[in-house]
Design goal:
With 257 residues, the protein is of the alpha/beta class. The protein has helices at 9-26, 41-54, 80-87, 109-122, 159-165, 185-189, 204-212, 245-253, and strands spanning 2-6, 31-34, 62-65, 67-69, 99-100, 128-131, 153-156, 179-182, 193-198, 230-235. The radius of gyration is 17 Å and the shape is globular. The chain starts with a strand and ends with a helix.
Length: 257
């Protein structure tokens, strides 16, 4: 794991955006795995800026989103499809037909989830997966006790996730769907490269467990310790409980290559 600690979310997101842009330039047909929520907003903003000011083109990029709430239609303002259109896809030159977000209204969920996996495979697999992390250590909506081998399926959200996400539903916990379709942990681990972003004090405990704790499905993000190419971009607050902080800074200062 590369652990990169920067002053704030903006700086960290700019660094992460450079990695995404490098891939998009080197491999115009790359397959991106995308996340929603508050965390990746500054990353998307920076990529939109690069598109508008530096000509970064996403025209041949394909993308798969991590998750979607069950029961929300694509035009529901709280849906992840709406989030992606509004914050990213509608602001760049990506072909929207190549952007897949799980269908929260799918009639046959198991069949839909199987098909989602099949389409990821058919696209050649995910080159770069963007992740946030839940305060309980979830990645995607793989809540504690999710199998490390899991594939796309419907998950029940943890109470803490419902509370955390109520801010996207007018602060009404009763409006937050109880279920979401989520790529599995196995699906995420198949990605060739992973970038995880985490900002703010509320993520400090989860970040410390992920990077320095024992690998356990009680904190699903700990499995990222087994992935061969993970870059973790965090701000000072999210880094505040790391024991080996000095070491991470040392490594970044003296990076080989
Ligand atoms: C979103 C996702 C979730 C979020 C996580 C953090 O697509 O998969 O794992 O990344 O819940 O959410 P924020 O960024 O809102 O704190």
């Amino acid at each position: 794991m590369d652990i990169i600690i920067l002053k704030d979310a903006r700086e960290a997101s700019k660094e992460a955006a450079k990695l995404v842009a490098k891939l998009v330039v080197e491999k115009p047909h790359a397959v991106l795995g995308l996340a929603t929520g508050g965390t990746p907003l500054a990353l998307y903003e920076e990529l939109v800026r690069m598109h508008k000011e530096e000509g970064l083109s996403f025209s041949k990029i394909r993308s798969f989103n991590l998750d979607e709430y069950v029961g929300l239609s694509p035009d529901d303002p709280a849906s992840y499809r709406h989030f992606m259109d509004e914050n990213f896809f509608d602001k760049i030159d990506i072909d929207k037909r190549n952007t897949l977000v799980p269908d929260g209204l799918a009639k046959d969920m198991p069949a839909f989830c199987e098909e989602y996996e099949r389409r990821i495979k058919a696209a050649g697999g995910i080159d770069l997966q963007i992740l946030g992390i839940g305060s309980d250590g979830h990645i995607g909506f793989n809540e504690p006790a999710s199998s490390f081998n899991s594939r796309t399926r419907v998950k029940t959200l943890a109470k803490s996730t419902i509370l955390d996400n109520a801010r996207f539903f007018g602060n009404d916990v009763n409006k937050v769907p109880l279920h979401a379709i989520s790529m599995g942990i196995g699906t995420i681990l198949d990605s060739r490269k992973i970038i995880l972003l985490a900002f703010g004090k509320a993520k400090a405990e989860a970040v410390a467990s992920m990077a320095e704790g024992s690998v356990s499905s009680s904190c699903p993000a700990t499995i990222l310790q087994f992935h061969k190419s993970v870059s973790i971009f965090i701000d000072e607050e999210a880094a505040s409980l790391l024991k080996n902080r000095d070491f991470y800074d040392w490594v970044n200062k003296h990076k080989f290559c």
